[in-house]
Specification:
By secondary structure, the protein is mainly α. The chain is about 55% helix and about 10% strand. The protein has two domains: about 210 residues, Rossmann fold (3-Layer(aba) Sandwich), CATH 3.40.50; about 70 residues, Orthogonal Bundle (Tyrosyl-Transfer RNA Synthetase), CATH 1.10.240.10. It is built from 13 helices and five strands. Bound molecules: tryptophanyl-5'AMP.
Length: about 325
């Protein structure tokens, strides 16, 4: 039995990139009875960029509600909040002491964020070590993430390798990353990677009217309606491909290539696809956000189970380190 683990930050209501890149693949893996899985909300990581307590709390609920609404089975999956596991911050300290400074200083995401953000704090710098700890504390075998997290996964393996080498024994398990090749990076409405920090997301969990408006903002070129269009360079088509069936995608491709089919038509089809494909999760999400005690119950149950797995790993490491 493989132990699968993944996390998502509490930076806001999960967007389509999070859903297709992480949440759905993770739920599919978790629902496979051959696996044991842990899924968590990385709300300690969130403090690197968000400082308002109410926003952190609300975002944590929104992420939890999205996972639950999209079909996470909490009997089978251990579902918890990172902040309910205080052991993770203790263990991060130990990992820090085995993490070379240049490895963190050269991390792509740190370089990118430190160029863009005004609040460049030590937590932001140390982000990958807390993430490594999230994984290593539970002896995870497989970590399904989007391609943007590849370097963080490599760092996790390096940190575990460095500790094992220093201690002269296999104290921490080195996990494998797992990427869904079909999804890779979900493009946002401007064609860049969909990301809250780029302001280019599609948010499924809003009213039909707002969702439609959101989809209509997808950036396209100026090829006139009657002319044939290249679907492979079009942002609308790229997103449609990720949510529609093969047959539907083939039809849209034909329409693009034939001409007389405008970007407005394609956007309307994409909007309808999203609306219909996610109609149940969207309703369930609203229900949970209006009944947050139901979310709390699930998360508290998960934290208890997660600590039962994490504590022995931390004890093992403490002992090996001489504490
Ligand atoms: P976060 O919250 O930025 O992203 C959560 C997951 O969504 C994926 N993702 C995407 N995939 C495809 N296309 C996109 N446009 C897109 N945007 C986001 C990310 O790859 C990720 O899998 N550092 C993590 C959170 C974390 C974590 C962990 C993950 C903390 N500890 C331990 C795994 C294991 C992050 O930034 O997630």
């Amino acid at each position: 039995m493989a132990r699968i683990l993944t996390g998502i930050q509490a930076t806001g209501v999960p967007h389509l990139g999070n859903i297709l890149g992480a949440i759905e693949p993770a739920i599919n893996l978790a629902n496979d009875p051959k696996n044991e899985s842990l899924l968590f909300i990385a709300n300690l990581h969130t403090l690197t960029s968000i400082k308002e307590p109410e926003v952190i709390r609300e975002n944590t609920y929104a992420v939890a509600a999205a996972w639950l609404a999209l079909g996470l089975n909490t009997e089978r999956t251990i579902f918890y909040r990172q902040s309910d596991i205080p052991e993770v911050t203790e263990m991060t300290w130990y990992l820090n002491c085995f993490t070379p400074f240049p490895m963190l200083a050269n991390a792509h995401s740190f370089k990118d964020k430190s160029d863009r953000l005004s609040d460049v704090n030590a937590g932001l710098f140390d982000y990958p070590v807390l993430m490594a700890c999230d994984i290593l504390m539970y002896d995870a075998d497989i970590v399904p993430v989007g391609k943007d997290q590849k370097q963080h996964l490599e760092m996790t393996r390096d940190i575990a390798g460095s500790i094992n080498h220093n201690l002269g024994k296999e104290t921490l398990k080195q996990p494998e990353a797992s990427f869904d090749e079909n999804v890779m990076i979900v493009p946002g409405i401007d064609g860049e990677k969909m990301s809250k920090s780029y302001g280019n997301t599609i948010n499924l969990f809003q009213t039909d009217k707002k969702l439609r408006k959101n989809v209509m903002k997808i950036v396209t070129d100026t090829t006139p309606l009657e002319k044939p269009k290249n679907p492979d360079t079009c942002n609308v088509f790229k997103i449609y491909k990720l949510v529609a069936s093969d047959e539907e995608v083939a039809t849209m491709r034909k329409n693009y290539e034939a001409g007389g089919y405008g970007y407005g038509h394609a956007k309307q089809e994409l909007y309808e696809k999203l609306r219909d494909r996610y109609s149940e999760p969207r309703e369930r999400f609203q229900h949970l956000m209006d009944n947050k005690h139901e979310i709390d119950q699930e998360l508290e149950k998960g934290a208890k189970r997660a600590r039962e797995i994490g504590r022995p790993v931390l004890s093992r490491l403490r002992k090996e380190l001489g504490y």
